[in-house]
Amino acid sequence: MKERENLWLRPEQPARGPRPRFGRAEMTRAAIAIADAEGLAALSMRRLAADLDAGPMSPYSYITGKDELIELMVDAVTAEFLRPDGAACGDWRTELRDLARRMRSAMHRHPWMAEIGLRRQAASPNRIRLFEQVLGVLDALELSMDAMLTTMIMIFVHVYGFVQIELADQEAQRHTGLELSAWMRRQLPYIESVVSAGDHPMFARMTAEAGRTLTGFDERWEYGLERLLDSIQGSAGGRRAAGETRPPV
Amino acid sequence: MKERENLWLRPEQPARGPRPRFGRAEMTRAAIAIADAEGLAALSMRRLAADLDAGPMSPYSYITGKDELIELMVDAVTAEFLRPDGAACGDWRTELRDLARRMRSAMHRHPWMAEIGLRRQAASPNRIRLFEQVLGVLDALELSMDAMLTTMIMIFVHVYGFVQIELADQEAQRHTGLELSAWMRRQLPYIESVVSAGDHPMFARMTAEAGRTLTGFDERWEYGLERLLDSIQGSAGGRRAAGETRPPV
DNA sequence: GTTAACTTGATACAGCGTATCGAGTTTTCC
DNA sequence: GGAAAACTCGATACGCTGTATCAAGTTAAC
Q1: The domain at A7-78 falls in which architecture?
Q2: In chain B, which residues have their Cβ closer than 8 Å to the Cβ of A176?
Q3: Closest nucleotide C1' to the C-alpha of B22
Q4: Which of helix, strand or coil describes residue B13?
Q5: Using 50, 70 and 90 to split pLDDT, how confident is the model at A248?
Q6: Does B246 have pLDDT greater than 90?
Q7: In the predicted model, what is the mean pLDDT of residues B137-160?
Q8: Rounded distance between C-alpha atoms, residue A69 and residue A72, angstroms
Q9: A183 neighbors A176 (Cβ within 8 angstroms)
Q10: Identity of the residue in A4, A117, A153 whose CB atom sits nearest the CB atom of B193
Q11: Can you tell me the mean pLDDT for A138-147?
């Protein structure tokens, strides 16, 4: 375990030299606190150092650069994606639904995580644990390894994408300084001009319903999640013919 | 049309003053050329101005800032997502499959588009045209407007996410300067240590198969796309019971 | 006790987005 | 026709970024 972490990144504790004033864990915690509170854009190496009461270049004693800092942050939040120990229930559909909800709520706590998205693919301890858990759940579906991996990708893509869209507005708002409604109102005249031109009937129907009947994002999220789980169910047992259900486990 | 574009952004042609040396379209084209060739990180306002043989602040005469530049770029590439005029075939499944493939190949030509991802949600002419086309196709499925919108989100999320993962490696490679294999080899010792520790059996199975039997990304993409289309098919007609097919259109 | 390994902080460099301002150019209005 | 408004354009500058470099101080090992 210790040895493994040392293989992931270079060893933390030095052989000689003065005792470090803090550790990688504290640095990661401080960085996450900044990004949670003020967004990823507010996180800079100087700012992190200042929050730790250290000189501007101090963080570089612990990590090689900002990329590694973000790798540490991502790994830390990935831990919040994991199923708590001993909480396995045996039903793959429930397991995957709970996983997706855990991921979403973790990204609500750490919006920058959704912002980073699927771009960081580096192996890290908690990422590997997450893979292990997801593959362990998918194992009940009698898929080929290829299908299992693609299914896992589909789950991650779905969750990250939905949360990105959910959080896009409030991130844009933070970035531009406009309030949410002001940002939307900025494009309203253009949208209305398109609608009234009459050559986009479906789009017009959408905006017409947007004002009254459309549900909130929570309902959309749950609906989309069940559709995703349906598609996984449909691919179980190696068969992929549409409309074919899988025999009970 | 002209009027509509003027509502989207402020008018392009000034009433008085010297003739602009170039237009917004040329600026957008130059910016896309930079991002295509050298990545989004290489695109700066100064660099763009230099490529246009203009002073550093010249681009600001045409657009309000970098955000608007990227909005223009995104809208331009979104045009490549659109179905060519008169190419509608009537079968929703074929339409959606073709749309997904068009999007993927456009993002292969413009990898920065995948990088920007789902974060930019602003309405723009081609984005509205894209909505119109997708909703027009989904209309055949007899869904509620809510379900249609969520389905559309699912499609975009799926395509963007898959392409992001596909391109993540080569983007990381461009960013760090390492070759692809070197980047992967960097984490290989750690992965091997995890596997040989024995407490991640599923992950070990995955890496074992990765060397021999696993297919390339093209096959994964096609498999995932058909699963997505299955799940849309399953939700048709307002019914959502798993395994229920829709009567032929 | 010496030396090697390390932390720390200052300084510096090249780059970024863009605010500001002055000068030049073209159109509109009186 | 002349004045003024509206615009382009370029230079300069500010505050910010990641981080390379280097000197000084601290600690453990030999």
Answers
A1: Orthogonal Bundle (1.10)
A2: 67
A3: D8
A4: coil
A5: very low
A6: no
A7: 95
A8: 5
A9: yes
A10: A4
A11: 92
Q: Strand D closer than 7 Å to the CB of A57?
A: yes
Chain CA centroid to CA B91, Å: 23
Q: Å between B31 CA and D13 C1'?
A: 25
Concatenating the DSSP letter of every residue in B183-245 gives HHHHHHHHHHHHHHH-S-HHHHHHHHHHHHT---HHHHHHHHHHHHHHHHHHTGGG---TTPP
| A247–B contact, CB cutoff 8 A | no
Q: How far in angstroms lies nucleotide C22's C1' from the CA of residue B45?
A: 22
B154 and A7 within 8 Å at the Cβ level: the answer is no
Are B164 and A119 in contact, with CB atoms under 8 Å apart? yes
Tokens of B16: 């008085």
Average pLDDT, chain B: 85
Tokens of B212: 């021999």
Neighbours of A3 (CB within 10 A): 9
Please list every residue in chain B whose beta carbon sits closer than 8 Å to the beta carbon of residue A146: 213-215, 219-220, 223
Beta-carbon pairs below 8 A across chains A and B: 219
- Residue A223 to residue B147, Cβ atoms within 8 A: yes
Q: How high is the mean pLDDT of chain A?
A: 85
- For the segment(s) B85-241, the CATH number from 3.40.630.30, 1.10.260.40, 1.10.357.10, 3.30.70.330 is 1.10.357.10
B73-93 pLDDT tens trace: 999 999 999 999 877 788 999
What value does the mean pLDDT take over residues A203-229?
88
First to last CA, chain B: 35
Q: Rounded to the nearest 5 degrees, what angle is found at the Cα of B82, between the Cα atoms of A225 and B33?
A: 105
φ/ψ bin of A10: left (φ > 0), alpha (ψ from -120 to 50), beta (otherwise): beta
Measure CB to CB from residue A132 to each of B158, B169, B200 and give the nearest one: B200
Domain ranges of chain B: 7-78, 85-241
What pLDDT band is residue B168 in, cutting at 50, 70 and 90? confident
Pick out the nucleotide with least CA–C1' distance to B66. C17
Enter the tokens of residue A35. 């990004």
Query: Residue B242 pLDDT > 50, yes or no?
Result: no
A43 touches strand D (CB under 7 A): yes
Half-sphere exposure of A145 toward its Cβ, with a 13 Å CA cutoff?
17
CA–CA distance, B6 with B2 (Å, rounded to integer): 6
| pLDDT for A16 beyond 90 | no
Query: In this complex, do A189 and B7 lie within 8 Å of one another by their Cβ atoms?
Result: yes
